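Narrative of activities, Objective 1.

The group set out to show that a structural description can be obtained from nothing but a protein's sequence at a throughput compatible with the screening campaign. Below is one input-output pair from the validation batch, recorded exactly as produced.
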Amino acid sequence: MSTSLTVQPPVKEPPLAVWLPLARPFTLTATAVPVLLGGALAAWDATFRLDRCIALLASAMLLQAATNMLNEYFDYQRGLDTQDSVGIAGAIVHGRLSAGDVLRGALVTMTVALLFGLYLVAVAGLWLLPAAGVGGMAAWCYSGGPRPVSGTPFGELLVALVLGPLLVGLGYAVHTGTLPGGVLLASLPVACLVAAILLGNNLRDMEGDAERGRRTFAIVFGRTSGLGLLAALLYGSFALLILAVALGAAPAWALLGLATLPLAPPVVRRFRATLAPIQLHPAVKGIARLHLLQGLLVAAGISIAALL
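Output recorded for this entry:
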């Protein structure tokens, strides 16, 4: 008597289920919020064009998604990601996609982002080209090149500048063709919080990063300094919001963003209470939530002022 075993073929995941985590959707608010804030400031100054806002929003979010894919690709190539890593999509290390697939996906995503950017150049002017070039170069330098900025003490500064003044400024200038200094001041709360997101990631991962040769701010200056900077960025975003309103860079309605202040202390307490990456991951998402909600409330407040 013979028996035979039926081998079930592996279940193939739908493409969306594989690619969507690589884009890291919860991080895309880091680009959406600055664009919306810039658009709200333009509306407050009585100039707003919906098509340009949508095009910049699509281009920026796609570029962010491509950056996330490149980060996954380069971290895998350098041996930084393993199956036990926290906070990664894990498509490569878990065998869902090859490294080449992820790189090609990133390049395709960047190409689509470029198409939206070309539309903006056509309707807003050639001055957008150097700004777009800076954004693209920053995306590459963050994860690629011989010494990625993401592995140095300057990662937080780079993302703060690009996803703060640069992107908020673009979000304003595509509507008006100008860039007042007040817009840059109004962008600083957003810059603080997006830097805090990256710093939170680096604090969570500092032990594993140090073993793999990375030299992030938290590693170079120590956990205590990192925690101090994290608290300064979180609470500083609220102080800078008040300063922007006091100096006339934003209307008083922008102070709606202060309603998110109670979200900051639990994040700081969680980081001070534990070193475990798995327990810190929700706190990192808490920073992203604070960035999203504060930014949306500030943009909503400015939009209300524009309508009044």
